[in-house]
Amino acid sequence: MPHEGTPSRRPVSEMIVEGSCSVKVITPPSRGEGREGGASGEGSLVPMRRLTITVQGWLLLLPAAVLLAAFTHFPAGATIWQSFFSTPKGDRAAVFIGLDNYRDMLDDPVFWRALANNAWYALGTIPVSIALALAMALWVNRRIAGRPFLRLAFFTPTVLPMIAVANIWLFFYTPGYGLLDQVLGAFGAPAHNWLGSRETVLACLMVVAVWKEAGFFMIFYLAALQQISPTLGEAAAIEGAKSWYFFRRVTFPLLMPTTLFVMVNAVINAFRLVDHIVVMTRGGPDNASTLLLYYIFDIGFKYWDTAYAATLTVVLLGILAAAALIQFAFVERRVHYQ
Amino acid sequence: MSAILRGLSTVAAWLLALFWILPLAYAVWTAFHPSAYAAHFDPLAPVTLGNFRTAWAAAPFARYFLNTVALVAMILTAQLVVCTLAAYAFARFPFFGRQALFALVLVQLMIMPDVLLVENYRSMSELGLLDTITAIALPYMASAFGIFLLRQTFKTVPKELDEAARVEGAGPLQILWRVYVPLAKPVYVAYALVSVSYHWNNFLWPLIVTNSVETRPLTVGLQVFSSTDQGIDWSIITAATLMTSAPLLLTFLIFQRQIVQSFMRAGIR
Description:
heterodimer
């Protein structure tokens, strides 16, 4: 096993990973603690003391619990509830219509379009941004000429608002006038309406997303790389291991928890962030760039069909929940924890 | 052999970095030159601040700045208080139902308020809070990420310190304030940076709940400006775009090292 001789430091972001699934992976320091709690030093707890602790715990938790319940759990439940009702119109109240909204949804070509777009968008952005983030981190982590500039260039898109980024790229893509067409024009290519044609629009948005996100993920890899002991590399070098072999058998497995963490984030972002669509395409042309959340936004706040928007949101919630479950159940088996 | 590979890899790194900086460099060029040079490169082109002046005068950006600062401050203050209390409870109070409640908190890592637009809009409307800065802030005040981050930090605080303070007669809140909070200072800085940059940049939810100049944050103001108030004068739009991102961008350029460290710390804990 490649990780046999690894140092005792735990890989980065393991704790987050461990915490988010809140089961199974329990590391030594937190184990003893959670189980025994206050009992450790004081023998068995007097019932009175136990009650005090519970009351204090609940009181400390109260503000967070109220806010979370009001703006996360309640709306999530209400979304599901509303999806079984019709949208109230004028003086007509909402009535229970069972699964009608869902039936309409299955017959709605735009919904399928949005879903397919979102799937392509996720498939196109997630692997590329993770691979680039890893490459960037490996570069910036070693002694390379101009390291401060490289780090700056890679990370800067992350601190910019997506809305600003979208404006800049909108200009970049402007047909005939933007930089992209100017550069291509220099090679004799004709002007192309990048965001106005169904073939290229989604790819253009993917480039923006990767550009914005890779630097952010780089940070997590960078943090993880700095936790890997340099003696590992030295030992491998002495034994004559090729650097690619070393990366494949040592570095990459050690980075697995980080990759999982980054992947969860990337999936969430692929379904959560549609700011650039509002600015750049408004879902067009012909819904070729409509992502699921953008469609929800459109239905909910342009057509004010709140019940149908709720139905679509249920699908989105389902996707996010499934992504979480699949990743934790499936990827975790291949992730090794020291 | 490996020297050649190394060289090639350095070249690749530089090419990627140049590509990464290109859109931004292009925007800077456009914003600082007269619109005749917007898409026309000439090293001798006159440099001007006129685009910034025009943009600043064309929309109430001062007000938007104020709104964003108020919004970010409100969210951060609430988050620090709410998350600290909750994290303390999860880290050091073995109360009944702790595991289940923690799992419920973590749900928000997956299902963020960004996704629950329709129902949260309904709630704000019933609370009579539509078109207020409070409405933008409320859904984000309890942050699962913050609770999680601080809980991990508080757990690393030696129990002996806690007990020593208790022996001296300090109550739970005093212990929190005097022992835990000071020890977690770097994590607070990291969290604050992440939170400020997230909410400075947030767009969709503010777009939905705000409807007037008095409440709109910068991101929404910028969108309103570039989509309606303006024709397609790219010089002015890019100037406005850079203007709205400038505070974050400048802070980043000045404190680059610390910020990257902070982001890393936030990811680690």
